[in-house]
TrEMBL record:
Keywords: Hydrolase, Metal-binding, Zinc. This is CMP deaminase. Residues 6-152 form the CMP/dCMP-type deaminase domain. Its cofactor is Zn(2+). CDD domains: deoxycytidylate_deaminase.
Length: 173
């Protein structure tokens, strides 16, 4: 007899299944919107509809610099990101009803970046559950979620369904 999955595992499995639709060459990310125990939407990262994606046209990388205070000293941190891809969380917000987001949870394969965190913080969701950390923005994102009172938690012991977890090709993560 197989053991019944808990709700966190069930919904994070769905986020990983959504991520299998991504054609990004660097990272496959999936997200689902849940209210109570009801799935309201699913999304993944990729280029806008009808536009060549990274697997067809290559990544459109830009470099950014950020001033961070590390151990009392300001340091310039170089970041690289693809601007061809719409993030899974952004697609989820684009394709779900704003009233459905009120008091809902988002399950996402990866910790949201700063931009997605800002958007989620303003969307009405009250909880974000993720699996893989995203170290580039982790400190800022965690502080934002605390300020907004959004439950923000990582499922560290979670294991994705077989065949859904692509290797991350971003060395800065």
């Amino acid at each position: 007899m197989t053991t019944r999955k808990d709700w966190d595992t069930y919904f994070l499995d769905m986020a990983y299944m959504a991520s299998t639709r991504s054609r990004c060459t660097r990272r496959h990310v999936g997200a689902v919107l849940v209210q109570g125990k009801k799935l309201l939407g699913a999304a993944y990262n990729g280029a806008p509809m009808g536009v060549p994606d990274c697997s067809e046209a290559g990544c459109m990388l830009v470099e950014e610099y950020e001033l961070q205070n590390l151990e009392g000293a300001e340091q310039v941190i170089k970041k690289q990101r693809c601007i061809r891809t719409i993030h899974a969380e952004q697609n989820l917000l684009l394709f779900t009803d704003p009233k459905d987001r009120e008091n809902s949870a988002v399950y996402v394969t990866d910790q949201p970046c700063w931009t997605c965190s800002n958007m989620l913080a303003n969307s009405g969701v009250t909880e974000i559950v993720y699996h893989r950390p995203y170290n580039k923005d982790s400190t800022k994102v965690t502080a934002l979620m605390e300020q907004k009172g959004i439950i923000f938690r990582r499922l560290e012991t979670y294991t994705p369904p077989p065949g859904t977890s692509e290797p991350i090709k971003d060395p800065l993560v």
